[in-house]
Design a protein that fits this description.
2 domains
Amino acid sequence: MIAKWSRWASCILFIVGTADAASFPEKPIRVVVPSGAGGPAELCLRAVMEVMRADLGQHIVVENVPGATGNIGLERVNNATPDGYTLSQASAGNTANLAARPKLAFDILNNLKPVGKVCQASFSLVVSPTLNVKTVDEFIRYAKTQQGKLSYGSIGHGSSQHLVGEMFAAATGLDMIHVPYRGEAVVAPEMAAGRIHMMFMAGAKPFMDGGLVAGIATTNRDTWAPIPNLMPIGKTSALPGFSYNGWNGLLAPKGTPDAAIKRLSVALLKALTDEKVRATIRAVGNEPGAGTPDELAAQIRSDLVNFRRIIEQRKLSFPE
């Protein structure tokens, strides 16, 4: 009798779970952005959310929760009910922070569940227009005559821009001074004035178009469609094979049901095929992401391996 009841109970739970999956979502969804408002990544996210909203039939509220290098917003999502109604935007900045500050940073690898990558960003290697160099080879040759004198910017100690800058320095043998700032928009005028000499930028296109920085290459393996006039660093004679791509994507609390993840991922994939969305993403210098959970999970793992390797190689330490 007990065995029969157990089978009945299992059947009832399966039917209820299937019904819940079929009806998801039944209320508005909240997406926490763990940084301040604005910037290319958020513009891409909001364009995608507009199309997902129509597909899912529910409002999607985007909420900026900045602070503690993203930890505050990510913790808020981690503590939310794992039902698919609270999501987080995350990015390469979060994997860089985890690699740089493992005891303090929120662990997106083990505490959140990937939904899919919204967009992918090739960093642009940009230099100060005052240097009057046009190629990676020219910059390296010049920088080697100025060892210890040139500076490169980033958006903070342990940021992905910082760590990719260290990868570049390690690969070229250059000795440059790292100067952290609060965002790329603050660095651009410093580069225009010649006070900062180089940077790997995620959102360089507007600054290049405005003449504040001079783009000389990208970190994508192949020609980067949004900025096709820049050569991939990995195809230069100086640094064959050098590449890295930034990203941002959607993640949910770890216990979120697979059915909810799948529904969200399918809606994300559909949004990423919308031509208006794709145009918006490319207008800020990014490319649409793949939108699948497995691809985003692989990106997060790859980031951590590469960032931890350069931190160990360069013996880097970071302020807490």
